[in-house]
Each structure stands twice: as structure tokens, then as C-alpha cells.
Amino acid sequence: MVSAQNIGTVRNASEPAASGPEHVTEPVGYDAILLASFGGPEGQDDVIPFLRNVTRGRGIPDERLEEVAHHYRHFGGVSPINAQNRALKAALETELAARGVDLPVYWGNRNWGPYLSDALREASADGATRLIAIATSAYSSYSSCRQYREDFARELDETGLADTMVIDKVRQYFDHPGFVAPFTQGVADGLAELERRLPGVDLATEAHVLFCTHSIPTGDAVHSGPAARGFGEGGAYAAQHRAVAEVVMARAGRDVPWDLVYQSRSGPPSQPWLEPDVNDALRDLAGRGIKAVLLVPLGFVSDHMEVMWDLDEEATETAEGLGIVSVRTPTPGVDPAYVAGLVDLVLERVHGTPPGERPAETALGPWYDVCRPGCCENARLGFRPAVAGLVP
């Protein structure tokens, strides 16, 4: 039986994690891996029901949802994210088998089938009660970490598995070598491609690298990560992206200026979100005489809708209209280094690896196994029950 959550006790956690250490250094015998993702529609008839799920509780009418739906309808109503997660699940299973790790992988989404509840019921039916979760999001914020943890708690309650199932979660992996390496290679290759397409271009004075990530409300950004770390404006979310971008540029070994920019904002215009928007940044660069831009989707693990629409369509069109040559680098996807890195993160918890032996490419990590109190609050909704972290 899983004990009820008390002050200082982590809900539905394995015994080594239940007392809330920053890093768990005792081995845990997990039964399975839970691959958790956002989900996406797989046909035109799915688009509006999917968007209703994404915006549940906000009272947004269908006519407003249709304004966003055209992104999906442009691609036949099919989001690429589910196919990408099927590929990632298969790649994880292959990597686990190659290492002799006997852990099945169950996949569930927050907003479309297969749902998290489906994955939990399937795992339970197979006799798995101790799960280690991997979310397809590398950074700290409400939507990229705590919301997953809240959804785990809610689905445990709604499926009736809260008294029998444990769900721990791997640490945020923004600076794990397996996540950073594909971006480093992508920047090196992308800058070489810009030189090929613009012979004689001086990258140091005529080019710019834009590291792109999903914008979030500034209120949520301020609350991302533990308040005690004092990350300031943009919170841990912005700090983690900047730290990784610095590492990528240093590893690429090219003297090219760069900035962190944002994309895919939503919500009312009156609500402040992180800026600058990638399109505004492109306009500013054009005004400064920049001829070439490298778009690096640093905030994304795969080429899902925000990458394919907001960067490959909108940002690319903006750059072309401004006379700027742009190249977009790949996301990790199923890059072998990324897949191996995710398995490494699982094995850290299986073996109870001490924090000093865990790889981290920035001074911010290795990040926490058990989220700290007050971490990544939703500024609009406040704190709701969540696993894999201390209350609240």
C-alpha cells in the first residue's frame, strides 16, 4: 500500500524518494517506465476535441479554438507528436534491450489518446506498480514539469490506483549530455550550411543564432524552479535555456552572436508572456543588417506542431520576407545520444547514483529528483496535488 501524503512526505513515491531528498541515492527496483507526453490529434475530426482537452477549464468557445485549429488543419489535422512518441518508445525499448535492462515502456498523453489513464491501467494489468516517469519536456515550468506531476496524481486517483501504484520521475534533463549533444551538432552543421548558402558571409558580423523555445506567462516563469534559487526574471525556465545555449555555442566553437527568443504564445494580449517573439527578433536583426539566421528549437525534444508551424512556416516566412537566409536545426527526436541519455536518467534512479557522479553540462545541474516545495506554481490556479515533489 502507498501511504497517504503528509507534510514532508512525497505522495505515491518509492520509499527512497518519499522523504523528499533533492537527489535519491538509494537503488529502486522499478517495474516499468512511463513515457508521458502532450498528445495531439490524428485526424481533422480530432482537432477541436483535442483543443478542448488542452484548454479544459478555461471556458474558451469553439470559434476561438478554430483560430488555433488551422495550424493542425494545415497538416491534415494530424499532429506529428504521436508518431514521434511511437518512434521514441520503440527507440527506448531497443536501447533498454541492448543494455539488458528489463523494463517495459508504457506511453500515455495528457490531452489525447493513448491517455495517461490508459497507460496506468495497462501497467497495472501487467502487474507493474513501481513506475519511473519520463516526460517529453526537458525544462522547469508549470506546463513542462509540474503539470505532468499533477496529472499523474489526478489519474492515480481517478483510476483507483492511488493506493497501489508508485510514480517517481526522472530529473529535468535540460543539461544532460544526451539532450545537449544533438543541439551542439545541429548548430555546427547549421552554421556550415549558412556558409554554404551564402559564400563569403562573415558569421561573426552578418549572422545570428536564435535559440527558440515556447513562451510561457511571465507569472508562471517567475515561479518556475525553487524560489530559494533566486533566478529572477524568467525564473529557472529562462535561466536553464540560457545556460544550455551558452554551452552549445561554446562547444560549437564559432564566434557568432546569439539570443534566446520565444514563440507559440497564446492567451489574451493583456497577459504578459516571455519575450521577444522570434518574428520580432527577426525584424530587429534585419534592421541591423543581419543576412543569415540559424533557428535552434532548443526548448523542444521533437519536431512537433510548434516547430513545424511556428518555425518552419511562420518564422521562415518572416525571414524570407526580410531577405534573411534562415536554417532550422533538428530537435533530438530519436537521436541515439538523446535516447541513450533518457535511459541513463532512468538508471540513475535504478542504481541510486550519487549527484556528484551524474553528468550535467551546466552549473545549474544536476537538477532535482524530487521537486522542491513551491516549485513551478501555476500563477492562475495555484497548487494542486502532485506526485514526485514535496508539498505544496
Automatic annotation (TrEMBL):
Fe(2+) binds at residues 214, 306. Residues 1-23 are annotated as: Disordered. GO terms for biological process: heme biosynthetic process. InterPro entries: Ferrochelatase, Ferrochelatase_C, Ferrochelatase_N. Its main location: cytoplasm. Residues 1-12 have a biased composition (Polar residues). Pfam families: Ferrochelatase. Keywords: Cytoplasm, Heme biosynthesis, Iron, Lyase, Metal-binding, Porphyrin biosynthesis. It is an enzyme of class 4 (lyase). It comes from the Bacteria. It catalyses: Fe-coproporphyrin III + 2 H(+) = coproporphyrin III + Fe(2+). The keyword Iron applies. It is found in: Cytoplasm. Pathway: Porphyrin-containing compound metabolism; protoheme biosynthesis. GO terms for cellular component: cytoplasm. Its EC number is 4.99.1.9. Fe-coproporphyrin III binds at residues 79, 148. One of its GO terms (molecular function) is metal ion binding. Involved in coproporphyrin-dependent heme b biosynthesis. Catalyzes the insertion of ferrous iron into coproporphyrin III to form Fe-coproporphyrin III. Belongs to the ferrochelatase family. This is Coproporphyrin III ferrochelatase.
